[in-house]
Amino acid sequence: MTYCVGLLLNEGMVLLSDTRTNAGLDNIATYRKMFTFEVPGERVIVIMTAGSLSVTQTTIARLRDMNDSPDADPTTCILRAPTMLAVAEIVGSTLAAVRGEIQEKLSAMGQGASASMIVAGQRKGGGMRMFLIYPEGNFIEATEDTPFLQIGEHKYGKPILDRVVKPSTSLLDAQKAVLLSMDSTLRSNLSVGMPLDLAVIDKDALKVTAARRIEAGDPDFRAMSEAWSTALRDGFQKIEL
Amino acid sequence: MTYCVGLLLNEGMVLLSDTRTNAGLDNIATYRKMFTFEVPGERVIVIMTAGSLSVTQTTIARLRDMNDSPDADPTTCILRAPTMLAVAEIVGSTLAAVRGEIQEKLSAMGQGASASMIVAGQRKGGGMRMFLIYPEGNFIEATEDTPFLQIGEHKYGKPILDRVVKPSTSLLDAQKAVLLSMDSTLRSNLSVGMPLDLAVIDKDALKVTAARRIEAGDPDFRAMSEAWSTALRDGFQKIEL
User: Fold this and answer.
1) Residue A233 in 3-state DSSP?
2) Hey, are the CB atoms on A236 and B180 less than 8 Å from each other?
3) Which residues of B touch A165 (CB under 8 A)?
4) pLDDT of residue A44
5) Does A125 touch chain B (CB under 8 A)?
6) How far is B120 from chain A (nearest CA, A)?
7) Residue A83 Cα distances to A8, A87, B129, angstroms
8) CA A144 to the chain's CA centroid
9) CA–CA separation, B42 and B19 (whole Å)
10) In this predicted model, what pLDDT tens digit does every residue of B110-142 receive, in sequence order?
């Protein structure tokens, strides 16, 4: 499984993904699920992926190929598309096409393959946008009312986001929120696993402002996780029934 | 959907269920999902149900019928079964039989019906036992390592249980824990809804010691929910990244 979460805030965007991929419980591997496409100063796009690895890898590879082809039609190239909405449409149609092809191969075996993605970015002259792309290629967008998007195992980590994330949340608090949301998910679902990839995109920076890989056993992450456990237990003790 | 949770602790058992039943989002109703079978001083059994209402109602009705028939075979009657393990087996086989019959009727329409149950109880001379009965009639039991069982929409409410519930947890703290676990679930899943049914069975009391229906707008529940939100936000603010 997977857990990826993205926050769209007034000050910028914060993205976090795990790296665990499994084909059955007895075949576990580490794969990056966060991919950056940048023309610093002109545009920044970060894509996070969940679902069948063959679908997500092929989709990302095709998106890269289209960028690398110098005479590509801008309507098929996320680094040259005129708007973030057009970027979301390109990712959506590429994902849907790849999924359809792989699905066809698998259908003979009675199996299925599916994937979803979060696309976050900003281009010069435009606003920050964040989209959740469904396996069929359609998408929804983060808004002021719901400033976060999740893919994969989203349930365990949602209560903390529901409670603390608002558009006005600072980027520092936002990083805490996504890390605690991930912490709850890691505790409850073995198929979500360390290391983690964290990225911050400041508003109008038009590049990834901060990117960090958090390895298993990272002392800061562990300290935060323990402080949160203690805070929850202390808070629990103080509540009167 | 549904959320039911049961805790098996050194001091007793605590059970909580919601009451929302829906056939599609546009057809929502309130049905009790917690059922008590008691011979005070001799045995107490509480059953909580999740899944297709036609399956759970028919199963509970058959269990009642078997109790009411004076010359019933003790091996089919949960109020006369010799052990709690035998009770779990009766509930399991009744559930599996009902599910099979209804499944057969629905299969013509390409539909399915399923249900699961939590069975908690104690009989004179025996220990407290708590079982999760699967739709096929097999079951698992709560243990010291995992002293709680959940059915229905279990994910949103699991992190708090994972963190605070141990066999040594007091019955008062246990009631707080299940109510906060339910509170997180109510916030995130509309198909779980008030009112709630809460039951406490003290160890060796051989009856339901306390039962309470918590209506929507219950001031105590609301105060606890708000206190927990505040505690979470305060705890969150204090954590350093």
Assistant:
1) helix
2) yes
3) none
4) 98
5) no
6) 23
7) 17, 6, 61
8) 18
9) 29
10) 888 899 999 999 999 999 999 999 999 999 999
Whether A105 contacts chain B with CB within 8 A: no
Position of tokens 């994910």?
B155
Range of the domain at A79: 3-238
Q: Is A97 on the interface with B (CB under 8 A)?
A: no
What's phi and psi for A104, nearest 5 deg?
-65, -40
* Mean pLDDT rounded to a whole number for chain B: 94
* CB-CB neighbors (< 8 A) of B172 in chain A: 241
Which amino acid belongs to residue B153? Answer: E
- Residue B110 backbone zone (phi > 0: left; psi -120 to 50: alpha; other: beta): left
With 0-12 / 13-18 / 19 or more C-beta atoms within 10 angstroms meaning exposed / middle / buried, residue A3 is buried
Nearest to B235 among A162, A172, A231 (CB): A231
Q: Are A241 and B162 inside 8 Å of each other by CB?
A: no
Q: What is the distance in angstroms between the Cα of A57 and the nearest Cα belonging to chain B? A: 29
Contact A233 B164 (CB under 8 A): yes
Alpha-carbon distance of A217 to B48, in angstroms, equals 40
Determine the Cα–Cα distance for residues A158 and A156; give it in Å rounded to an integer. 6
CATH of the domain at A10: 3.60.20.10
Domain count, chain B: 1
Q: In a structure prediction context, what are the per-residue pLDDT tens digits for chain A, which is 241 residues long? A: 899 999 999 999 999 999 999 877 788 899 999 999 999 999 999 999 999 999 999 999 999 999 988 777 878 899 999 999 999 999 999 999 999 999 999 888 888 889 999 999 999 999 999 999 999 999 999 999 999 999 999 999 998 999 899 999 999 999 999 999 999 999 888 889 999 999 999 999 999 999 999 999 999 999 999 999 999 999 999 998 8
* Residue B109 DSSP code: T
Q: Is a pLDDT exceeding 90 seen at residue B24?
A: no
